[in-house]
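Before a colleague's protein record goes any further, I have to sign it off. I want your independent view on whether this chain really folds as the tokens say. The record follows directly below this note.
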Amino acid sequence: MTAAGHNAAGAIARAAANLCAEAGAAGVTVRGVAAAAGVAPSAVIYHFANREGLLAAAHAAMTEAIAEWMADARAASADGRGNGLSAEALAAATAIAFLRDHRAALVALQELNRAALRGDLALGDREADWSRVVRFWSAVTGTGDGAGETGPIWSVILEGAISIAALEVDPIVRDALIVDLVARAGDRIARRPLRTAPAVAPARTPPARPDHPPGRQRIIEAVIALIGEAGVGNLTHRNIAARAGVAVGTVSNAYGDRQAMIVDAFDDLRWRGIDAVILGPAPPRHYLSEIVFTPSGDLRTELALIHAVGAALVRNPDLGGAGPGGLADSVRHLREGMAERWLAMRGIHGVDAIDAALWVAVTAAIVERAICLPPAGRRHWADRAADDHLAALFGPPPPSDGVEE
């Protein structure tokens, strides 16, 4: 390929990456990328063949940009340690800067990982990508080259902290959450006295599944189906009415705005995908695999849709709403309530909201890594990793009663 060809291909890949970050995989089209790159659609087809090729190019471009960012951040963290700054302070500052610079790309990369999980897209060696991430966070935290005991643990904590903080609408709250998570993780790993005494309280009781009238439940099912097909952007009263088999006026009477219907759909998905597992017969030691994966190792539909709602919240913060009852509030309750129940079922009590958020951060990162593995090994790896991190943060769980295996 000529130098001009390389330049054109690079410009197209960067345009695809920008569109993917801004609008998600669904927003990447040949015509849209061509317009953004300032080339003819035929040039896009020439270099990347089809939309799948464009998405793979977008993934590579975002991964390369993050790798370059990490190289600069790694050098800065080394300088910081030379100036006497603590590893935890450097880690929190680096995570905040990463979220500031790559928040949209992070969500897009997670979406592309799920597309690869379904077999819709080939993304190359993602395990190698994760190994590079482990080495980076190990260097930032001064825990070695990633092969030691705490390097991988810190990598999971920080990647997960970035992931769940991305869902916060207010940037000040996002930054403060990361600072608190890093500080609490450091205290937990080092077995230091906690800087904030956790509130000793029983785990929250999971609510019963919402009992909606049949017509309203049909609308909720339609909302869930439409989110699964094309994301939150596909939700119009007309589309929902057609899918639910009701009049448009019925949808308007049931829900005054789109946020309210998304909240109800999200809560229904939460119950199916998470509360039903915790309330069901699954042993606590296998909660993560049961919540996330089918028996064959595929991603459960409920979790894929919950992720789609979270991605929409990152791209459109107005969906989150303000105060109790909004989508952002539902996400927080999902995060904290699920984690408190989970930890209590493993014999860990007296945790507070930061501990709960820390555990969700850990499990979020474990899931992202597990889906990069071959299907047969995903469930076992996820449960084993959850056990390892549970012990690192909260101490060894109580002996098994023999029921879990």
Remarks:
- Residues 94 and 150 are 18 Å apart (CA to CA).
- The first helix runs from residue 3 to 23.
- Residues 1-61 form a domain with the Arc Repressor Mutant, subunit A fold (CATH 1.10.10).
- Residues 401-405 have pLDDT under 50 and may be disordered.
